[in-house]
Amino acid sequence: MIFTSPLGLLALLAMPAIVAIHLFRRRFPPREVAGLFLWQVVRQTPEGGGKITRLPITASLILECVAALALALIVAGARLQPAGASEHLVVLLDDSASMAATNALGESPRDRAVRRVLGEIERLGSGGRITLVQSGQRPSVLLGPAALAVEAAPVLEKWKPQAPHHSPSLGLRLARELAGRTGRLMVLSDAPPDPAVEGQVEGAVWVSLGEPLANVGITAAQRTVSAIALALGNFSDVTTRRRLRVVASEREVMAKEIELPPGPSSLNLPLPMGLPSLRVILSDDALLRDNEAILVEPRPQIVAVENRLGEGRGRQALDKAIGSLAGVIQAKPGHLVFEPASELDEPPSPGAWRVGFGRASAKLIAAGEPKDFVGPFVTEKRHSLLQGVTLAGVVWTGASPLAADKVHPLVSAGDRPLIAMPALPGAPSEAAILFNLDLDRTNLIRAPDWPILISNLVEMRRQNLPGPDRWNYRAGEWVRVRLGRDPTGPLHFRCSGVERDLPPGRLLEFIAPSPGGLLQVMEGNDVLFELGVNFLDEEEADLRDRAAGEIGKFNPQSGRLRTENGPASDPLFWALVAIGGAAIVANWCLLAPRRSNA
Amino acid sequence: MSKPRIDWPAVQTVAAAFRMAMPRAPVGGRLGERLGVGTGSSLEFQDYRQYAPGDDLRHVDWAAYARSEALTVRLYREEVAPRIDFVLDVSRSMILTEQKFQAYGELSGLLACVSASTVADARIITGSGVEPLLLRRPEEIERLLCCDALLSALEEPHLPFRRRSLRVVVSDFLFPHDAEVLIGRLARDGASLSVVQLTLAEEAEPAIEGGRRLLDVEGRGELDLVIDEKAVHDYRARFGRLRLGLSRAARGAGASFAHVVAGTPLREVARALATAGVLETV
């Protein structure tokens, strides 16, 4: 007999306790009476202490001791058989969407993978253990670790590969950790391992269950206000015909037969304005996953610009630059306000970003005279304001000295900031930008950098307006949505059955979920934004390089997993349960009539 | 304690001086030699009443007719052999001690002899599930006194009494009960009820003994108790209420009640029963 929890033997202390209780319980000489009820209701607590008398060996004492012994042995994990050793198989399932591609017989690599795993389970027998890992950008454990093999079938039944193209490395790493020294690792995919991961497959069996198939898929899709642009890929060696349908709210908007030569093709489809989200559907082929895209109509963010600069060549140059930008209007109050730099420290209007030109207010100015600079200019190139800006040939005029601790320079000449972000109380850092520049004398307004700077300013502001950065995404891409206010209810999104909570905040960031579809960003029960999430994966759509085969072999040093099948597997457990239970019931029956009568 | 040692000659000697008291209410039973309360055909005159068609012409009082010209008939008292139902408590408490067992045997023997001296239809009831024993000879009562039951027959909800029978109940009544309900149940549809409570002297008047583990002889539990002055006082008060309750309930139901203490000489017991109205002297 072995004990899996020897500390449980401490429960045997219950036996001397029971004996002691019985020993001290009978402290008065017994006397038989006819009407016990006439004696009751008086003091029942003995006044004297207990005295040791000869232990009466009663049936109750014996039964209680037997029950205590049985329970102590159960707690101590008494076993007749030692813990078993089982074979442990860790299977990494390739979750990429191409695993669902079907051949002419309607069979997919996923079906073959399931059959293979079930075959392995049969080989392992009833005592075998299995761990199922699903590959992906974030690999996950489908079953286990080291679950009973019989539990695998229902999990495999539900497994539907649909992830975008990804490297198996992370999944392999997780599977290896789960396998440890005792598990055997098997990878089930539809293609042989890439040379990049081939080194990681050592000690594992890589089973490829794919077959080369011709396929046509949508590899990119974009929607403007009045058209759809599609990139289609014909991953075969022959020209093929497909039917393309565009559906809006279950109503077919457009349908046409298209002929696709081998390789990539593009397609532009003009659309009437004001249509809701559209589904672009290609007729069925090997892989269904890439035959459909959902496209939400983009709603461009209009930036309202307000020009408060005084009359002069500077104001004219600004108006001209603004006039050349799309998605910009001049309005009050503006999202972006251009004004003299001296007004920057006045209280801002809510939501307005301000750009000041000229001599800054006295709070920002340091001692010294304004200077002109022709370079060299030191720029903070990572800042989005300065993307594409070179300042080549620019004469920077009227740059006043600024207090170093009150501004964050973006462009400097020597120790003098030329473009800077003043630290204004109660406003975000981007909300004010100071151009330490005399617009009337500089040649910046005639340089190519001028419209770029103004455009960057407008785009910076546009990026910060409420709403999503984009309206259509690929699965796996980061989605960024600005609320522009504090949320008033719990935030979450739902997309094709996937529903996740979002952390409360003005800026929502999350990964576009797979398998994609129409994604709704919700605040409580209100839909805030609808976005399109699409598969659009050229790597997965190309099924020509899929193959079948098996390489590698199991690590010969992998041992067997010591398994504890639980107490129910040991006959001693059940014997102890029966003995303990019978003793408790018998003791109860023995004492119950006297109790009830008393 | 399988059977009590009953000195039958002594018991019969005492019993010869007594007979069962007859009630005022009509007694059921076949014709016998005891005068009943109702009208019958004995030689003992009871009353006159006006003649009614169907009356036996032999009972017409012709002398009265001559005097009054009214037909009247003479009525005579009935003679009956009363039905007697003895209820014996054969629970373990009745043989708690040898003395109690002996007293119980003698008391039962006395009642059996008294009943036998009357031409009576006597039965012994020991429980609802036991066929009542027809008492032909007083000595037959001995074999019923094995007293190994866990419950008294009186605690059973239904006893096989006969209608208009004389009922004699012997028990220690040391079980939880409601006297009014119990006596009412025993007296229902009977001609009379006699209740005899037999206890030990120490059951009525316990002594201070100190700590004892009290075990109910009928398995009704056990109790560790210091039998001190207060405990004894409380017990006596409770026993007194029990006896008084039985007595009052018996009086309320028109029954007779007697308390017999084991160890009392049998002749004194018989006198006490006669005083209580259970027996009457011959």
What does this entry show, briefly?
With 598 residues, chain A is an alpha+beta fold. Chain A folds into 4 domains: 2-82 and 567-597, no CATH class; 84-212 and 545-563, Rossmann fold (3-Layer(aba) Sandwich); 303-463, Class I glutamine amidotransferase (GATase) domain (Rossmann fold); 467-534, Sandwich (Immunoglobulin-like), CATH 2.60.40.
**How many structural domains of chain B?**
2
The chain pair with the largest interface is:
A-B, 27 and 32 residues
The H/E string of chain B reads HEEHEHEEEHEHEEHEHE
Number of strands of chain B: 11
What's the tally of helices of chain B?
7
Highest CATH level, the class of the largest domain in chain A? Alpha Beta
Task: Characterize the structure shown.
The complex is a heterodimer of chains A (598) and B (282). Chain A has 598 residues and is α+β, with helices and mostly antiparallel strands. Chain A has ten helices and 36 strands. In chain A, the strands form nine sheets. An eight-stranded mixed sheet of chain A has the order 18-17-19-20-26-25-24-22, covered by helices on one side. Chain A has a six-stranded mixed sheet with strand order 7-6-5-8-9-35, with helices on both faces. In chain A, helix 1 (14-25) runs antiparallel to helix 2. Chain A is extended and about 120 Å long. The model of chain A is unreliable at 42-48 and 594-598 (pLDDT under 50). Chain B has two domains: 8-23 and 83-281, Rossmann fold, CATH 3.40.50; 30-79, no CATH class. Chain B contains seven helices and eleven strands. Chain B has helices spanning 8-15, 62-68, 98-117, 179-187, 201-204, 229-252, 266-276; strands at residues 18-20, 29-50, 72-88, 121-125, 133-134, 166-171, 192-199, 210-216, 222-227, 256-261, 279-281. Classes of the chains: A alpha+beta (598), B alpha/beta (282).
